[in-house]
């Protein structure tokens, strides 16, 4: 399934570089949430959202230069990273000393963001009811009872959909154990 998602991203990138706004919209939906999480490591959520929006505008202006998905991703993350540092220095110059910038492991954060992006994509590909249950339980942090009440289904149905979601995610994401998958999900947020 991840190969299929990558193919969709490749197709969207080709459309994007050709000037098709549908390609931009697809890439925005895929990358916006994880880039905001990435940017929040440096600044507030409101500023992070503004920086990510601006990054997509900047990248649209340079769309013809991207010849691969990895080049696109790398450039996008670097724009967001540098703009966050600029915003931080302008807004609160003393809050982020240079040793903190040096100590920050950009590559580790990039890996976390990409892992989170794959996880979100896999959750999005779950069947509708399974996705709704999984999202309420793991993304929104609701209990099984709250989820059952809100969705108007039995507790046993919620538990079954939760188990089904874990099995499907494990199949989509490879050999990651379900417990490790969920641990990764919560650690990467």
TrEMBL record:
InterPro entries: RNA_pol_sigma-70-like, RNA_pol_sigma-70_dom, RNA_pol_sigma70_r2, RNA_pol_sigma70_r4_t2, RNA_pol_sigma_r2, RNA_pol_sigma_r3/r4-like, WH-like_DNA-bd_sf. Residues 119-167 form the RNA polymerase sigma factor 70 region 4 type domain. Keywords: Sigma factor, Transcription, Transcription regulation. Pfam families: Sigma70_r2, Sigma70_r4_2. GO terms for molecular function: DNA binding; sigma factor activity. It comes from the Bacteria. GO terms for biological process: DNA-templated transcription initiation. Residues 27-86 form the RNA polymerase sigma-70 region domain. The keyword ATP-binding does not apply. Belongs to the sigma-70 factor family. ECF subfamily. NCBIfam families: sigma70-ECF. This is RNA polymerase sigma-70 factor (ECF subfamily).
């Amino acid at each position: 399934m991840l190969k299929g998602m990558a193919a969709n991203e490749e197709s969207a990138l080709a459309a994007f570089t050709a000037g098709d706004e549908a390609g931009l919209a697809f890439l925005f939906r895929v990358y916006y949430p994880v880039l905001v999480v990435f940017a929040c490591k440096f600044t507030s959520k409101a500023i992070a959202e503004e920086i990510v929006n601006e990054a997509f505008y900047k990248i649209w202006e340079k769309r013809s230069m991207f010849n691969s998905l990895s080049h696109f991703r790398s450039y996008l993350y670097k724009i967001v990273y540098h703009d966050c540092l600029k915003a931080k220095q302008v807004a609160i110059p003393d809050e982020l000393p240079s040793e903190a910038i040096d100590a920050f492991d950009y590559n580790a954060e990039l890996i976390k963001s990409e892992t989170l992006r794959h996880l979100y994509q896999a959750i999005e590909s779950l069947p509708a009811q399974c996705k709704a249950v999984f999202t309420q339980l793991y993304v929104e942090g609701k209990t099984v009872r709250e989820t059952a009440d809100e969705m108007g289904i039995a507790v046993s149905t919620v538990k079954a959909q939760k188990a089904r979601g874990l099995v499907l995610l494990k199949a989509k994401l490879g050999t990651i154990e379900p417990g490790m998958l969920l641990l990764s999900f919560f650690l990467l947020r």
